[in-house]
């Protein structure tokens, strides 16, 4: 049997390789790292997480992301299995020890006899064979040029920003305290999963002033700074209004200062555990394009972080993606070259879980093709089906932008009540319908 070739061993490529091998089809996984690195990657491991260490909400009843988690677990996904094995306390979210997670994914792929990992860069789009292109937002320049030549269009792009990571021992816990928002979580560890740094109004105003005045990364000529709203740099949010951060990542609601329980914070900076040892914490929602020197100065104005030592400072990188509604069919194949499938963030989904889910789906489709069969997309009533429907035709091509999974992509429920007051009943109805339909889709394969 001819192997399926995958370009890129990120979350999407790793998941695709796993699904194909589990279907009994050989896989060749081409990865240019570590021989050729990128701005954001630090290792040559598969499924390296370069931005946050969170897979977001794990609530599969009230949240579309949690429902996507459920579907990937139901489909025996490698990414979710390794995330569950290396998860960290994070309230209602699923966060992982990123180094242990990527190492485990790499080991699992290396141990699978049907998977061969080849350390090389692919610079052209193959004209024959069964291929999946899962190169992510940091597709190499040569391959990106090849994609543009074949599609006849310019790859669209926006910018992603990365949040800094702090050494836990340098956080002043006489000022900060441990608590998840609204004490969310079933265990004490979950309820104390975040470190919180409080600000009064004067401290918040001084922080905003410093943020706005700080030196920022300049863009090269011809680049336009378009951002995905789910990953906005904090200084861009601050530029939209001085109160924006206080109603976003720095909102104080659901938190009580353990040192001063009777004093209401005007704003709160949260840090989330980044590794199993609890020695590293990332600053939640603090993606930034500030220059390194400015970052240390500005972030040390945060109460509790005056003496913070940073394991990694924030940064910014270009994120390229296809105009998938015009280029991909409903089997995620490039219309001009049906031997090529695209998967992951390069297709215009946004987020770790969404990228891995598209890899899972592309892998199952490619494996079926290798065996002379066909796997259709899951029903659009499922989280995975809603995503692939959006990127392969459901979205307006003219205004296509990267998208997280959300209930707005799901077909409406006739019996659900409209408006915000109906969420308590509507969201569980969405997820139950999705579970039923996804289970039926799996059973039909």
Describe what this molecule looks like in 3D.
The structure is a single chain. The protein is of the alpha+beta class. It has 13 helices and 17 strands. The strands form four sheets. Strands 6-2-1-7-17-16 form a six-stranded mixed beta sheet. A six-stranded antiparallel beta sheet has the order 10-11-12-13-9-14. Helix 2 (64-74) packs parallel to helix 11 (352-370). The longest helix has 21 residues, at 423-443. It is globular and about 65 Å long. The two termini are 20 Å apart. Mean pLDDT is 89; it is low at 220-225 and 416-420.
Task: Please give the structural blueprint.
Elements: E1 4-7, H1 11-22, E2 27-30, E3 54-57, H2 64-74, H3 78-85, E4 87-88, E5 93-96, H4 98-111, E6 115-118, E7 130-133, H5 141-151, E8 156-162, E9 165-167, E10 177-178, H6 188-191, E11 194-199, H7 201-213, H8 234-239, E12 267-273, E13 280-283, H9 292-299, E14 310-312, E15 315-321, H10 324-327, E16 333-334, E17 337-342, H11 352-370, H12 383-394, H13 423-443
Parallel strand pairs: 1-2, 1-7, 2-6, 7-17
Antiparallel strand pairs: 3-5, 4-5, 8-15, 9-13, 9-14, 10-11, 11-12, 12-13, 16-17
């Amino acid at each position: 049997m001819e192997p399926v070739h995958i370009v890129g061993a990120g979350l999407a490529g790793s998941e695709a390789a796993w699904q194909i091998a589990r279907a009994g089809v050989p896989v060749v996984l081409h990865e240019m790292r570590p021989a050729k690195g990128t701005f954001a990657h630090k290792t040559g491991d598969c499924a390296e997480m370069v931005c946050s260490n969170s897979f977001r909400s794990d609530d599969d009843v009230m949240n579309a992301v949690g429902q996507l988690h459920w579907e990937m677990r139901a489909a025996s996904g490698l990414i979710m299995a390794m995330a569950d094995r290396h998860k960290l306390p994070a309230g209602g979210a699923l966060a992982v020890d990123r180094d242990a997670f990527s190492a485990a994914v790499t080991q699992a792929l290396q141990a699978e006899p049907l998977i061969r990992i080849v350390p090389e860069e692919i610079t052209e789009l193959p004209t024959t064979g069964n291929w999946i292109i899962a190169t992510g937002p940091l597709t190499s320049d040569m391959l990106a040029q090849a994609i543009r030549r074949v599609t006849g269009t310019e790859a669209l792009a926006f910018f992603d920003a990365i949040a800094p990571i702090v050494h836990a021992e340098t956080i002043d816990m006489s000022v900060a305290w441990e608590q998840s928002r609204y004490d969310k979580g079933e265990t004490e560890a979950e309820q104390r999963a975040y470190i919180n740094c409080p600000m009064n109004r004067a401290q918040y105003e001084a922080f905003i002033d410093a943020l706005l005045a700080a030196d920022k990364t300049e863009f090269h000529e011809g680049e336009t700074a378009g951002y995905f709203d789910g990953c906005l740099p904090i200084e861009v949010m601050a530029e939209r209004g001085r109160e924006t951060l206080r109603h976003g990542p720095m909102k104080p609601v659901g938190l009580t200062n353990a040192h001063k329980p009777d004093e209401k914070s005007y704003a709160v900076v949260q840090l989330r555990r980044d590794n199993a040892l609890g020695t590293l914490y990332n600053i939640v929602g603090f993606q930034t394009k500030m220059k390194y020197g400015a970052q240390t100065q500005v972030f040390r104005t945060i109460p509790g972080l005056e003496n913070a030592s940073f394991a990694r400072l924030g940064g910014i990188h270009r994120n390229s993606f296809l105009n998938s509604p015009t280029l991909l069919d409903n089997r995620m194949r490039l219309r001009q070259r049906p031997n090529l499938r695209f998967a992951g963030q390069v297709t215009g989904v946004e987020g770790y879980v969404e990228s891995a889910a598209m890899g899972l789906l592309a892998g199952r489709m490619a494996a079926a093709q290798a065996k002379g069969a066909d796997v259709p997309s899951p029903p659009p009533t499922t989280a995975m089906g809603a995503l692939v429907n959006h990127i392969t035709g459901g979205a307006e091509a003219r205004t296509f932008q990267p998208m997280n999974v959300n209930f707005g992509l799901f077909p409406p429920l006739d019996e659900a009540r409209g408006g915000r007051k109906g969420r308590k009943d509507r969201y569980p109805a969405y997820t139950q319908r999705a579970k039923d339909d996804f289970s039926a889709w799996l059973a039909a394969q």
